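Hi all, long-time lurker, first post. I run a small reading group and we've been trying to get comfortable going from sequence to structure in the token notation. Rather than ask abstract questions, I figured I'd post a concrete chain and ask someone more experienced to write out its structure so we can walk through it together at our next meeting. Sequence below, copied exactly:
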Amino acid sequence: MEFLDDLTHQRLPLFLLFASFTVTFVVTRVITRLIRAGKGPFKNNVSGGVHVHHMVPGLALMVVGAFISVGVNGVEPGASISAVLVGIGASLVLDEFALILRLQDVYWSSEGQLSVQVVALTVAALGMVILGFNPFNAETDVEFGPVAFAVTAPINIACAIFCVVKGKYSTAIVGVFIPIFAWAGAIRLARPKSTWARRRYSPAKLEKATARAQRFDHRWGRRGLSIGDWIAGAPSDSANPAVPEKPTDETGDALAS
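-- Answer (accepted) --
Happy to help. Here is the structure in token form:
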């Protein structure tokens, strides 16, 4: 009862953000998979070669929700309305996180699975916060107190950032809540395709990182990819198989339809 009462009076906007974020992602993936399969009433919004990705309305909703949130200063019903707008907008944007990161339409490719991983980690993080797990609250450090928190917090944040640079996104999110994971991820070898590995590793070290990543993926990665395929659909060779390509002549120019 205390949790429900606390949810009603203090955490309702956060719960609405969590719910709207999750529901929007599920609905979005259902619609996009129907479009991919050529079923249902939904069609690709391609006009004149321009494809309006759903990150565009997502950004607009996030901006409007943020403005409302600042304007109402936590007063209801504005706080709940802004939470829903931010939740929907953030879900639409993060569903295309891989496209933003790579500046390519990789939605249905294997690289596009990164969007699903980011959304899943965001849902997990929001869920932990709703349950009261706050990694930035000094009161959670009962044994050492706020002084130790002030000393260790910058280290924990730096390690989480290192994990991101090293291509370990899952470790970074988990490490925000359980710092030892971030410490381990920051120390260990980077993913071979990460920015850190490309810029700082010698050929020998890059080969070592590649071998380690392959061993890890062979042992653990397939399970996560199977879940991702079930949620988002199995990746294909084409970046956007739902959009048929126009036939071209020998010079590569598109033929008139």
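A couple of things your group might point at:
Residues 203-232 form the longest helix (30 residues).
Residues 140-144, 238-257 have pLDDT under 50 and may be disordered.
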